[in-house]
Amino acid sequence: MAWFKGTLRNSIYGLLGNPVLPSDSVLASSMEDIREAMLTLLTQPGDKQHATVTRRVRYANDIQALWYLRGDLLAALASVHGEAAARQQLQTVTRMFQGLLPGGLSSRFSPLTN
User: Fold this and answer.
1) Which of 16, 25, 31, 94, CA to CA, is 20 to 30 A from 66?
2) Do residues 100 and 113 lie in contact, with contact meaning Cβ atoms separated by under 8 Å?
3) What CA–CA distance (Å, rounded) separates 12 from 30?
4) Cα torsion 2, 3, 5, 9: sign
């Protein structure tokens, strides 16, 4: 009967639009890839040092913390490159979060981004 409960729960989450979360090893690997991508953007040639944002990205505990740090990353990049260029650079990082976050945290289409 235990197999039925897990399967039923997963199928209900699937119907509600909440896919099954990735395994811990996949999540950890993806989290490190995202962290490296964010740190790479912060240390591009010609950029001034953003020590606070760099430290917060480096020591973020989970995938949600990295997700919420995108705003700080955008602000740091915008101060150097301008907002349009910063948003374009941040899009690559945002795509890396696909399938790793709970359903309520993912990006949604906004008419303001056109």
Assistant:
1) 16
2) no
3) 26
4) positive
